[in-house]
Design a protein that fits this description.
Keywords: Membrane, Transmembrane, Transmembrane helix. One of its GO terms (molecular function) is ferrous iron transmembrane transporter activity. Belongs to the oxidase-dependent Fe transporter (OFeT) (TC 9.A.10.1) family. By secondary structure, this protein is an all-alpha fold. Strands 1-2 form a two-stranded antiparallel sheet. It has one domain. Helix 1 crosses helix 7 and helix 3 packs across helix 5.
Length: about 290
């Protein structure tokens, strides 16, 4: 549940920030008539994300054991690739994402309402699809899906509340620190998802070494203890694990964390200055 809440909070806040940037641009530029097209694109992105999550769940439930394990393993690896790309992309783009979105929206307005819907859809759909894939991969092996589902809904709801109060100017959040700390936690969550994916590959017979254990604490591990639930649910640290699972966890988590926490190089200053003529504002639709 903790991992699901973190996924919902992180991905939800990114999507909320994207929407708030688009809305603020239209309100401040006096083009409120385009708001309905932005919300239409957002609604379509949410519907696609929910449908994608439902498709993953339905497909997994209608496969044989070996096919299901292989399907979940591939989904886990895909989720790890997506989350790794996402945290590094946000780390690189955080300072200029607002200007980039405003520029794309201004271009979409010049092209017409349909372009605005498509632009808003694409801006939010990425976050939604990542959320669905991460959630599907993170809850594999859970005894019940109700708790994780409520947790991710709670994370998204928290993100929406934070985004609304930030938009209203009621609070200020250090987004740099927020995305850094949640990025570190997501790397550990992704390492656990990768570990589970390796286990699924071994269960399906695609990888060897299922019974070659790196450790076995089942004799002293209290499955009902709070720390057991936290370690298993958040980082997929289980009472026992194969050598290949542990190698995958460490081989991913250590170098990715080091690269993520390295200080960024400052962007090089441009050698020449160019002055662009601003495009005329598009008329607000009736």
């Amino acid at each position: 549940m903790t991992a699901s809440y973190l996924i919902g909070l992180r991905e939800g806040l990114e999507a909320t920030l994207v929407v708030s940037i688009l809305v603020a641009f239209l309100v401040k530029s006096g083009q409120r008539g385009y708001l309905r097209y932005v919300w239409a694109g957002v609604a379509a992105a949410v519907a696609l994300s929910v449908g994608f999550g439902a498709l993953l769940t339905y497909t997994s439930a209608h496969l044989t054991f070996e096919q299901g394990e292989l399907f979940e393993a591939v989904a886990s690896v895909a989720a790890v690739c997506f989350v790794t790309w996402m945290i590094f992309w946000m780390r690189r783009m955080a300072r200029r994402i607002a200007g980039d979105l405003r520029g794309k929206l201004a271009e979409a307005i010049r092209m017409g309402p349909v372009a605005v819907v498509v632009m808003a859809f694409l801006s939010v759909a990425r976050e939604g699809l990542e959320t669905a894939l991460l959630f599907f991969s993170a809850v594999q092996g859970a005894t019940s899906s109700a708790g994780p589902l409520l947790a991710i809904i709670g994370g998204i709801a928290t993100a929406v509340v934070i985004g609304v109060v930030m938009y209203a100017g009621a609070v200020r959040v250090n987004l740099g620190k927020f995305f850094t700390w949640t990025g570190v936690l997501l790397v550990l969550v992704a390492a656990g998802i990768l570990k589970y994916g390796v286990h699924d590959f071994q269960e399906a017979g695609a990888l060897p070494g299922l019974n070659d254990l790196a450790y076995d604490f089942r004799g002293v591990w209290a499955p009902d203890a709070w720390y057991s639930a936290l370690l298993t649910g958040m980082f997929n640290i289980t009472p026992s694990a194969s050598v290949l699972e542990v190698v995958a966890w460490v081989a991913y988590a250590v170098p990715v964390l080091v690269l993520f926490l390295l200080p960024q190089r400052p962007a090089a200053a441009p050698t020449t200055a160019t002055t662009a003529t601003p495009a005329p504002a598009a008329p607000t639709p009736e």
